[in-house]
Design a protein that fits this description.
Structural class: alpha/beta
Strand order of the largest sheet: 14-13-12-11-7-10-9-8-15
CATH superfamily of the largest domain: Dihydrodipicolinate Reductase, domain 2
Order of helices and strands: EHEHEHEHEHEHEHHEEEEEEEHHHEEE
Number of helices: 11
Strand content: 15-25%
Number of domains: 2
Oligomer: single chain
Largest sheet: 9 strands, mixed
Helix content: 25-40%
Length: about 400
């Protein structure tokens, strides 16, 4: 898709595992993005990614902050580093799109929102899976009235998060517990579909100690405990009136079982994994039974590049949130994966923790507004062999 608008010069900070699909997409998939620089605490990692994907420059954080050309930074560092990186970039006048969660501390999140407003900078927050075909199709079904008024919802995910933390060391730090690492996808999906949460009750439990004798990595000779509640269950009261139940269990086996259900006065909607872009959307109505709704939107997560990695199949359109924000910058409108939505999602998790700790109802202090993407645009044509016009849905 061509555009006469000036592309948004962009730098990626953080060149870990998830950066592969981000860099590939930002470099080649979105016409509004001009990815010009990479940065990592390990310069060799940045150099390797730059060589692999044809990115022009390797820069330090200070160099990015001082650059007069770079307008937007995509922050892919671990959650514990988010605050420092985002603050530094906002203070230098850069727009920032960050991986989830916004920060690991609610007060720091509030500070970053104030700073973004003060600097008149955009601040976007993943997960951008809510812009994918699955969630956006579900939103269209809901808005069409096919399940009537939504009365309740249920969301659940389980993983052996302690075992995962052997391979992914960032999970051992703040923000590594299952609710913050994965549950946030389910919270964001519910917020996108049902709007803001009003009040919360919950229960929680910490992760067990992960002992050295259970490890398979030769270089591991110690034990650790993932910080925070690794198991959260709770009830959400949405401002629109619906009631919800959430269940995020990182203290169980690794055979993942997930579900996301919305119950309405005229039907039920069952959704696929919100940790992907192309989850199925199943409509269940009286007498006619159930049917899978064809996707009405693009960005279905299907790999778009030759020789896809295993992660491409789940995360094939990572970066769409950054691209949508780049279009928002040029079109001078609000971005959809906004700082307000990201903060509200973070506050829901914080509220569950607080309700669990104090045995009280947590009343939300934040809110947000999000508009759906326009439907009718596709990611691929010609049996998946040609690019289509999905980026057009990000413009307005």
């Amino acid at each position: 898709m061509g555009t006469t608008l000036k592309k948004v010069k962009t730098a990626v900070v953080g060149c870990g595992m998830i950066s592969n699909i981000y860099i590939r997409n930002l470099k080649n998939l979105f016409s509004i993005i001009d990815l010009t620089a990479l940065c990592d605490i390990n310069p060799e990692a940045a150099e390797q990614k730059a060589k692999s994907y044809g990115v022009e420059k390797i820069m330090t954080l200070k160099e990015i902050a001082a650059s007069k050309d770079i307008e937007m930074v995509v922050n892919l560092t671990g959650p514990g580093a988010h605050y420092d990186v985002i603050r530094m970039m906002l203070e230098s006048g850069k727009h920032v799109f960050t991986e989830k969660v916004l920060t690991t501390d609610l007060e720091q999140g509030e500070e970053l929102i104030r700073l973004a407003d003060e600097k008149q900078c955009y601040l976007g927050v993943a997960p951008d899976t809510i812009l994918g075909a699955g969630i956006q199709t579900a939103k269209k079904v809901i808005d069409s009235g096919l399940i009537g008024e939504i009365t309740s919802c249920m969301a659940s995910i389980n993983r052996n998060q302690s075992l995962n933390s052997e391979s992914f060391r960032f999970l051992r730090e703040e923000g590594g517990a299952l609710p913050y690492d994965v549950g946030i996808y389910y919270i964001a999906a519910l917020l996108c579909l049902l709007g803001p949460v009003k009040s919360i009750r919950g229960f929680g439990a910490p992760a067990p100690e992960h002992r050295a004798e259970l490890l398979y990595q030769e270089d591991s000779s110690f034990s650790w405990t993932i910080p925070g509640n690794n198991l959260l269950t709770g009830s959400l009261q949405f401002a629109g009136g619906a009631l919800g139940s959430v269940h995020f269990n990182g203290n169980t086996i690794g055979e993942e079982k997930n579900f996301l259900l919305l119950y309405g006065t005229e039907g039920i909607l069952e959704l696929g994994d919100p940790n992907t872009f192309g989850g199925y959307v199943k409509l269940i109505r009286p007498e006619t039974g159930e049917c899978v709704i064809p996707h009405t939107h693009g960005y279905n997560g299907e790999p778009v590049w030759p020789d896809p990695t295993p992660y491409d199949y789940a995360y094939g359109h990572r970066g769409v949130g950054a691209a949508e924000m780049a279009w928002a910058i040029r079109m001078q409108r609000e971005n959809r994966c906004s700082k307000e939505l990201g903060f509200h999602a973070m506050e829901v998790l914080y509220g569950l923790d607080q309700a669990a700790e104090h045995g009280t109802t947590y009343e939300m202090t934040s809110s947000f507004h999000m508009t759906a993407l326009k439907s009718g645009y596709l990611s691929t044509m010609g049996h998946g062999k040609m690019r289509a016009d999905a980026e057009r849905s990000l413009v307005d």
